[in-house]
Amino acid sequence: MEYKEFLKHFDLNGATPRNNTINVRCPCHNDKKASLSISQGRNNRIILNCHAGCNYKNILSEVGLTEEDLFNDGRTKQKNTWRDKIASRVDRPIDAVYDYKDANGKYLYSKIRFIGKHIRYAVIDKKNDSFTMEKPKGVYSLYNLPAAIRAIKKGYPVYITEGEKDVNTLKDLGFTAVTAGSVSDWRSEFAHYFTGARVVILPDNDAPGLELKDKILKSLRAFAHSIKVVITSQAEHGDVTDYLEAEGHSKEDLKKLMDEVSAVAAPWIQITERKDGSQKQSVNPGLLKACISENLSYKTVDGGYYWYCNGYYKHIDKNAVKAKISAYIPDTLTNDNLLNNVYNLMLADSDHMANEKDFNTNEKYINFKNGLYNIDTKALEPHNADILYTRQVNTEYIEGSTITEYHTFTKFIRDLCKNADGGIDWQAYKALQEVAGLAISNIYGHKTKKAVFLYSPVGNTGKSQFLGLLGHMIGQENITSIPLQNMNEDKGRFAFANAGLVRLIMNGDQSKGDVKDSSIFKSVTGGDAIKVEAKGKDIRTLVFKGLVVIACNDLPYIADDKGEHIYRRMYIVPCTHTIEEKERDPNILDKMIKELPAIANWGIEGLHRLRANNYNFTEIAAGAEVIANYRKNSDTVYSFLMDEGYIITKNPADKVSKQELLTAYNKYCQDNGRQAVGVRQFRDRIVKLTGYTIHKTRLKNILASYCEGLKLSDEFIPVNEGQAIPFE
Predict the structure, then answer these.
(1) Parallel, antiparallel, or unpaired for β 504-507 and 547-552?
(2) Number of domain units in the chain
């Protein structure tokens, strides 16, 4: 690539080459001075040398170039860069490009200034020389924000200017500065970045600049512990760049000017005069607590803290809360007694008290990293601290991101849904789509009245990877494992004690051991309240709002309840296709994690279908067959009736002799090598299946017991109605 063309990929900041060498800011580190030299050597080969030690390959990758671009020998074709394309689109030369990043350094968008002070915004993909000529909706940040956050943590002052050019001017002098971009771009939510900071506001010398200064001051008073306002240039509309460049002042002049201005202390910092004329600073715990309580969102639950950050409430321990309090206080004034005092005052604030049951009750939204997806309007809304979520989907919502044939997930999910013949069971496919959508939402799982069973009588089907994918999307901290065998009156109240905020009960390898008591399982999947008891705490009631998802190779034997309702609570998704060893990818989960926005939208599509179907999962014929066989194998009485041609009509006019039925049942069990239940259990099972108690009926002067609501196909001849006597 030609040298001149090569330089277009870097921020030259007005610099020009001298003797075929130019110094620019390195794109791979927080370069406060131009530490990257770009030279043209022998045979016109381009040489990169970062004096901070950055690898030249990383530098090339960061600006969308390759090693071949270092040569001007025809090996690479000259092409228009993103700069050329944008300048051509707007039909103006570019003067400067300012990249905006979030607090973690992630690129968000660019503000582009063209010759003539024409401003446009774009999202630029420098590696692919492409761009979108717009600013993302609802995305706001400060220019040079990551550097400011680092400076605040180290105790250095941070300077706020009106424009990006001033930020770069100060950056060249070794100061850390930020800007919102213009007088109309400051937002009050920026204030929390300056918690505990020493701030110097350098406004432009005009009415809009002074108005912006007042707005920033008002926002920062409850966060920064000292603020200075320094007007630098005395010229009309003058700024700090004019002060230094046009008016000829030095860095030392600027420092002296700022030192002469007294700082305004935070409301919680009290300053008193000593007898010798010196000043003493102290912290008023009550005022500090008031500032934190009025300006930050947090909840206290049973003596613990849930702190609102990045769109959801996260449980944090005492030390983490004290660290947040400490950020407001100068190091010279901090002590443990003071921190504990403020901590306890905040804990006693009734305005911030909540109960665990208050969280995750709003079923309207799915909480993504970049906002709240409204399930009704299908639109993304800003995060809202008034909506008490304790979890967030581990990806951003990207409208229009869809699963394609080229995604790793596409082949994975189709393989998981293949039947024994190799064809795709599209009913199972839709089912897993609905499960995924429900899992990432905040809709109560018990609305489906189901627990989901990924049933796989064979191994290596991919069901564990599917659960792993759900776990990554939801977060392992929002998942717990409670075996079915522990969902009983004896162990259930302890097992569910900490499940109030859990989204998924996920059993990745459910044991096939007997379930002797299924009472809690039925309550949890049915939305009924259960009693729970945490260690050292009182018994309380809980309605589990999440979803139960179980993976198993064998369905457990449910010993206590053979009623139809217990089987209705089990939603079977068969996974019967074994992935051949040569096709197994040990990195498949990592690959799918990179596709999360599209996978989330895939799940949302299933969620909309589930809601439209009144929270009834897609019926799976193969799953219904598994349940039918499972029920027959679990219940010898039911199996006998089905195999021997009896029909449960639930019509009291249909009657079968109890003695004949019992005799036939015992013979059936003997012939099929199955263990028969006792007479009392047989009677109880018949009563539960038919819904009628067994009565004695007099027929031809003979009193005999009959089972009502049951008949033998079309061969049974109803007896004449006689006097019915309840059978004891």
Answers:
(1) parallel
(2) 5
Question: Could you tell me how many residues make up the chain?
Answer: 728
- Residue 121's pLDDT is 95
Between the alpha carbon of residue 187 and those of residues 89, 113, 198, 218, the distances in Å are 30, 22, 19, 11
The answer to whether residue 587 scores a pLDDT higher than 80 is yes
Rounded-to-integer distance, Cα 31 and Cα 43, Å: 30
Whether 138 is covered by a domain: the verdict is no
Does residue 582 share a domain with residue 686? no
pLDDT at 53: 82
What DSSP element (H or E) covers 350? none
Q: What are 110-152's pLDDT values in tens digits?
A: 999 998 889 999 999 988 888 999 988 888 999 999 999 999 9
**Judging by DSSP bridges, how do beta strands 36-40 and 21-24 pair with one another?**
antiparallel
DSSP single-letter state for residue 677 = P
Cα 440 to chain centroid distance, Å, stands at 8
Domain around 431: 408-627
| 339 touches 326 (CB < 8 A) | yes
Indicate whether 241 belongs to any domain.
Answer: yes
Q: How far apart are CA 231 and CA 257, in angstroms?
A: 9
Contact 461, 496 (CB under 8 A): no
The SS3 call for residue 572 is strand
Cα–Cα distances in angstroms (integers) from residue 595 to residues 101, 403, 408, in the given order? 22, 8, 8
Each residue's pLDDT tens digit, 218-267: 999 999 989 999 999 999 999 999 999 999 999 999 999 999 999 999 99
Q: Quickly count: other Cβ atoms within 10 Å of residue 76's Cβ.
A: 18
CA distance 222 to 199: 13
How many of the other CB atoms lie within 10 Å of CB of 105?
12
Note the pLDDT tens digit of each residue in 67-103. 888 887 655 555 678 888 999 899 988 889 999 999 9
What percent of the residues of the chain are helix, what percent strand, and what percent coil, each to the nearest 5? 35, 20, 45
Say whether both 505 and 427 belong to one domain: yes
The three-class DSSP label of residue 237 is coil
Do 422 and 323 share a domain, yes or no? no
